Amino acid sequence: MTYDNWLVIKSELANKNPPSVMIIRDKMKSKLGFTFRHHKQWEGGMVHCNEQIHIDFYDEKKYTMFLLKYSEYL
After folding, report:
1. What percent of the chain has pLDDT over 70?
2. Which helix (H) or strand (E) holds 13?
3. What is the pTM of this model?
4. What is the DSSP string of 42-67?
5. pLDDT of 24-33, one tens digit each?
6. Residues 9-45: pLDDT tens digits?
């Protein structure tokens, strides 16, 4: 997922959940069913930064619900 798409999803999740869910990884894993990883890679001699978000799901039902809610951003 691109970083820009993640920012939109993250803001919606932040509005629907308490701040601790987005900050504490264990709470995010238990409440939302996933955690995320942010990867940056510089290309062209530090000219362009390629940013990606990887989401690791731990609950099949919450994964399906995530896809239903946020598939337009993926």
Report:
1. 100
2. helix 3-16
3. 0.85
4. EETTTTEEEEEEEEEE--HHHHHHHH
5. 999 999 999 9
6. 999 999 999 999 999 999 999 999 999 999 998 887 7
Residues 49 and 7: their CA atoms lie apart, in Å, by 16
Q: What single-letter amino acid sits at 70? A: Y
Give first-to-last CA distance, the chain, whole Å.
6
Number of domains in the chain: 1
Whole-number Å distance between alpha carbons of 44 and 23 = 33
Residue 45 domain boundaries: 3-73
> Residue 11: which H helix or E strand, with range?
helix 3-16
With left for phi above 0 and alpha for psi between -120 and 50, is residue 24 left, alpha or beta? beta
Q: Which amino acid, 5?
A: N
